[in-house]
Write a structure and sequence with these properties.
This protein has helices at residues 23-31, 56-68, 126-135, 150-165, 196-212; strands spanning 7-13, 35-38, 41-50, 72-78, 86-87, 90-92, 119-121, 171-177, 185-186, 189-190. By secondary structure, it is an alpha/beta fold.
Length: 225
């Protein structure tokens, strides 16, 4: 008999912007069905693939949260150019797209939620997540900007849902992943990348930190600029 465990919902995006793969989708799929353990706490990972489209991604995630009633949600996305895994601290109420999404939409200077606050903070222990990933040998750092494309819109939409009508006690947040080595070479030259195995190990370590820490650790994580 399969043990009934709390759910950790992990999402990843389909490829976008001309890429044929998206590490966030691959990493989420690799962790699907795995059991995360932290001390006496255990939870099972459920992965969800999301479209890279304004509005549609938010709706799919909202439906998944309602279906699975998870104890925590970690949404993943791609940030080409970053050299490590970067939990996001803040989601802003702004959709301002440099490129069109996969459905052809390109909002400019629009709010994610017309009546929503200017920003939401992640309710995941982001500093503990960074520490756990580094301890596992995975390059990681805290980020203070999730951008203004679909990743940020999804992050903001998730936090808006959890604040209004999410499962009791459910925490949520977003983490950007770097390119895979096969994606590193581009027209502008080589870009930073991290092997898939390390990315999977990093997200697994971050999820263990989520289970282990109801409150974040006290550690420096700010930026001067």
């Amino acid at each position: 008999m399969t043990e009934t465990l709390p759910t950790l919902l992990v999402t990843g995006f389909e490829p976008f912007g001309g890429d044929t793969v998206n590490p966030s989708e691959i990493v989420a799929a690799a962790l699907h069905g795995s059991v995360v353990e932290a001390g006496t706490r255990r939870a099972r990972v459920v992965a969800q693939r999301l479209p890279c489209a304004f509005g549609d991604a938010r709706a799919r995630l909202a439906a998944a949260v309602d279906e699975w009633r998870p104890v925590a949600v970690l949404a993943l996305g791609l940030a080409a150019g970053r050299a490590g895994l970067t939990p996001e601290r803040v989601a802003i109420n702004l959709a301002d797209a440099r490129i069109a999404d996969n459905a052809g939409a390109q909002p400019r200077d629009e709010p994610v939620a017309a009546q929503g606050p200017a920003a939401y903070f992640s309710t995941l222990p982001v500093k503990a997540m960074v520490a756990a990933m580094r301890e596992a040998g995975v390059p990681a750092e805290l980020s203070l900007s999730a951008g203004s494309f679909v990743c940020n819109e999804l992050f903001y939409g998730l936090m808006h849902q959890l604040a209004a009508s999410g499962p009791a006690g459910c925490r949520g947040g977003f983490m950007h992943l770097p390119l895979l080595p096969a994606q590193a070479a581009g027209p502008a030259g080589l870009r930073p990348s991290v092997a898939l195995e390390l990315q999977v190990a990093g997200v697994a370590a971050a999820l263990r930190a989520v289970l282990a820490h109801e409150r974040d650790i006290a550690a420096a994580g700010g930026q001067i600029a």
